Amino acid sequence: MSDSDDLMCLSLKPGLPKVWDLRKIIRSYVQIAISRGEETKLDNLVKHIARIYDGDQRGSENYMLRLEEAFRLFELEQAKNAEKLKTSKPLEKNGNLTEVDLLTLNDREWLNDSVINEYLKLIVRSSDRENIAVLSSFFVEGLLRDKFEKTPDLTGKYTIIPINLNSHWTLAIVMFPEYSITYFNSMGDTLEVEDQEMAWKLVNYFDKKYPVPAGAKTSSWSFKVYNNIQYQTNSDDCGVFVLAWARAWLFDQQLLFYIGSDNNQMKKLRKIFQYELKEDKLMKGLFSESFSKKQLKAMERPYGDVPESSEPKALKRKRKIIL
């Protein structure tokens, strides 16, 4: 099934883009089911779509026929790709990734967990700061199912956490000295029901494991949405935003606002991230080259050093969510 054959799914939920196609939704459902050890069934796919869109289309005969056909074609495609996956070689410089993993960074593709997790680990390894940590994308997934992944001691550290809810990538950064969690979402700063549940569980986890000491400026952990950013204009680039935000936050926070402000920028970033993962090394200058001269000129304003014990200046403008 090629991109030109994509079957378009009716968008029933206000605010969601109408370009989400059945092929990608089916693929994301299969990935989730496999990660949970569940059998992939058409009925479960319908329930998965009903969670994303406001309504169950089971009553629409035409819709169900299209969905069943798309699912059948996808299963055939998966069977053909199974042999490719078996023969896919690990990368020479990063054995945790394969050539197939890197293909998810091609244009219009959705990034998988392996690419997200390995790139975030790469940028943390490339930093000379000892107070930065990263958790895998499976941490929040386990948290939502009340299955707690073992984590290192995060006391006093800024912790980067990638999150995948309903096939959409977002980013949370734990600000330990401030006892706050800052949330980045390329679909907007409104928290849907799933986001609210995730936020509550995340705050509750840190409240219990890392309670705020007596005498601190706050009595409990808070969850804040950072809204001084651009938002995605398609259904494909949320994972790219997450990687770009994490890198900019760690190395050059002034870039945060300009990520996604150029239509061609995401394509450039995909190629950069693909190249850097293949080389297992951040390449100097490549990231900033994806920004236009006008954007880079705007970033020449004075920018002082940020004390490690304080919250980065670029994260000051945000909205507090009352849980």
TrEMBL record:
Keywords: Hydrolase, Protease, Thiol protease. Gene3D superfamilies: Adenoviral Proteinase, Chain A (3.40.395.10). GO terms for biological process: protein desumoylation; proteolysis. InterPro entries: Papain-like_cys_pep_sf, Peptidase_C48_C. It comes from Oikopleura dioica. Residues 302-323 are annotated as: Disordered. Residues 95-249 form the Ubiquitin-like protease family profile domain. Coiled coil: none annotated. This is Ubiquitin-like protease family profile domain-containing protein. The keyword Chloroplast does not apply. The keyword Protease applies. It comes from the Eukaryota. GO terms for cellular component: nucleus. Belongs to the peptidase C48 family.
